[in-house]
Amino acid sequence: MDGQPALPSYQFVLNGQSVTVDAPADMPLLWVLRDKLGVTGPKYGCGVGVCRACTSHLDGAEIQPCMVAVQDCAGRQVTTIEGLADGDRLHPVQQAWLDNDVAQCGFCQPGQIMTAVALLRRTPNPTDADIDRIENVCRCGTYFRIREAIKQAAAGRN
Amino acid sequence: MAVLVADELDARLGDVDVPLAPARPELVFNQLTGASNSVRSLYDPVRAAAAAARARLVTAAARRWSLPAGSLRTQDSAVLAPDGRSASYASLAVEAAAVLVPAVPGTPKPPAQQRLVGQGTGRIDARDIVTGKAKYTGDLDIPGAVPTVVSRPPTINGTVRSYDATAALAMPGVLGVVRIPTGIAVLAETFDQAMKAKAAVQVTWQPGPLAALSDEDIRGKLRAAQPPFLIPPLLTRHVDAEFDFAFVSHAPMEVLTAVADVRADRAELWFGAQAPIVAQQAIAAELGLPLSAVTLHVVRGGGSFGRRLFHDAGLEAAQISRAAGRPVKLMWTRNDDVRHGRMRPASHHRIRATHALGQVLTYEHRVATVQTDFRHGLGEALTAAAFDLSVAGITLSQAFFLLTEKLPYELGVSTQLLAEVPLQMHTGSWRSVYSGLVRVADEIMVDELARTLGQDPVLFRRNRLPDATGRAVLDKLAQAGGWGRDLPAGHAQGIAFHAEHRSSVAYLVELDATDRADPRVTRAVAVADVGRAVNPRGLEAQLMGALMDGISVTLQAGLHIDKGAVREGSYADFKYARQRHSPPEFEVHLMPPSGSPGGAGELGVPAAAAAVANAYARATGTSPRSFPINF
After folding, report:
1. Which end of chain A is more exposed for a tag (fewer CB within 10 A), N or C?
2. A53 and B253: CB-CB below 8 Å?
3. Cβ contact A43–B302 (<8 Å)
4. How far apart are CA B345 and CA B340, in angstroms?
5. Could you tell me the pTM of the whole model?
């Protein structure tokens, strides 16, 4: 808007590509991705880090982009669900999701998959107790198949 | 639907797309997705249409090749000739459309020839979902549609007395502020800026019509509305019980979102809608436009459970777009969804059963609920029958109750009556509607009757089920679930049964209630007979989701009303189940196919919820009466 100071500019790597955006420093990454960059895989479900439908990765670790300001992403690697597959070759966790027909409405699944990928990076052979610690909400109640898909993906890499 | 089409057409499943039709008022039966009627109502028509198309494709190929149509066969989306020639359906489509009288019969296959029905397959859109390509309303890139949120009152149905948007309009990215009947809308370049500016709008609110009411008051109104029992407890042994169920949010993962582009002479909208014709009519009436000038594109919904039967967000988006003079993308926040969204109505139940010599003589169930909003109409399976009842002077909600609520057991003289308390709040059908309340209370009561009469809960049910299908489901459950096996102290099994939508289901759950404040279902087994499962993997998914609904509403998830406002505001306090509440062991057994498919989308909820309650009662030696139990 006229008369307002120019917005600061931030550069980061998004799904392997360098991007630069002009945005207020405190704007959550979620809205930078969705409203400025048109990257809509990360979903809004609560905006307060509870439902975790937006879960993505920052330098390979799980984050909730609704709770991370864009200024904290400067110079770092952001990966969303769109950046998980290697071209047409799905990530093993995505493949496990297909094999187990996990998704119902599908809305939370990008976040569920990104959470599962991060879990398997930290804990290659998760126990049921490890899987129980996943907080992502699935309102369709696909939890059992999520559990099976994570176990399948873990077994596949052994 | 894709499976039915691919099977009858002899097409590859991957070649079948099932797009969502826009609102089409010329369609009969309301174009409604709900009441578990999609497969039931479309199984025959979709197969008939696909079989007729196949007959025309074969006829077109026969003409092209000058071969007898009867000598051709179809496979993998192509017509094949005995000499090895083949023609894809795509190459034949134009010629096939011109065929008036097919040279081969266009009747659907008998079940023995079906290749895909009953086999089990994944969703055809699963790859789009796992790669983030699936588009929901908020993901659509409609030119010019700007992010929009609404400042809403602290109480349900509160109204704007006055507002001052000066500060909000001066904030970065803000594009406009307009007043609509439900609040103050803020338009901005991003949702972040819209939400921040929304917080800066100064609004003086007029309290809503329920501002004096809290849960206790509502419960009092429900108790006072109860119709009396017919049978006095004179001289007869009897069991009485009262049950309360809290309000429950639909809380679909995707909050209500709608895109609207309203011009002087036309309007175009995009949103997830279970009842698009009703939505289109209401929006056209609101805008003063003819129905033909309003286009409603139906978009994939991120969960619904009955919520998207209502077009609240679509109507608001139309009002905002008209007032602001530009296209808008309206999103409810999660707070809006929980505090101003629809709810399963709270209910109060009184049940009295009399018995003598080990037999139940009478069974009376009185239900009082806050009135359920059925203004979206009913689905095909119920519309005709409900119309007959409404002509007889019965309300739509009473008609729905009468048509859906059936006690499956022979329990002597049995009566069920519904009383409704109208309150000015947003209610709506929640997956399984009345059955999620009435049949849950029934199934808990049946367990208590069995206990009173010293009978096994499975045998007690089995001996009173006149339907052989139901008895077979119970037998299979007891065997597959290991009914009666030893469990550690503080753990117990619970079972429950439900029949609806021409289907039957029973659940067995094992519950660890050693920590009563945080019980865990450790194992669950479901057995279902749906006549014929079109896609068993999809059916198993429905029964898995219904189990999570049952765990949630029985143990932990509900809404409180405090002085006319919903106390909860997100998934942090509306405690829908998480991974740690789901059983690490879960199995489904489907009975062998017979007949045509029944409905199953809502089928599992009542039995799952009641099985959890019955397990809790057995594990703790208590008689839970108010749900959710930990609330």
Report:
1. C
2. yes
3. yes
4. 14
5. 0.94
- DSSP strand pairing (A77-79 vs B347-356): unpaired
Q: Considering only CA atoms, which of B221, B243, B273, B275 is closest in space to residue B29?
A: B275
How close, in Å, is residue A30 to chain B by CA atoms?
Answer: 9
Q: Which residues of A touch B303 (CB under 8 A)?
A: 104-105, 107, 139-140
Q: Which residues of B touch A36 (CB under 8 A)?
A: 190
Interface contacts (A, B; CB < 8 Å) = 186
**CATH code at position A39:** 3.10.20.30
- What is the DSSP pairing of strand A77-79 with strand A9-14? parallel
Nearest-CB residue to B545 (from A31, A51, A104): A104
In three-state secondary structure terms, B487 is coil
What pLDDT digit, counting tens, does each position of B326-381 carry?
999 999 999 999 999 999 999 999 999 999 988 999 999 999 999 888 877 765 54
Q: Verify that B14 and B92 share a domain, yes or no.
A: yes
Kindly state the tokens that stand for A93.
């966790």
Both A68 and A118 in a single domain?
no
CATH number for the domain including A151?
1.10.150.120
Contact between B533 and B123 under an 8 Å Cβ cutoff? The reply is: no
Whole-complex ipTM: 0.97
Q: Which of residues 330-349 of B touch A (CB under 8 A)?
A: 331, 333-334
Question: Does residue B395 lie in a domain region?
Answer: yes
- Looking up tokens 């110079």 gives A75
CATH number at residue B375: 3.30.365.10
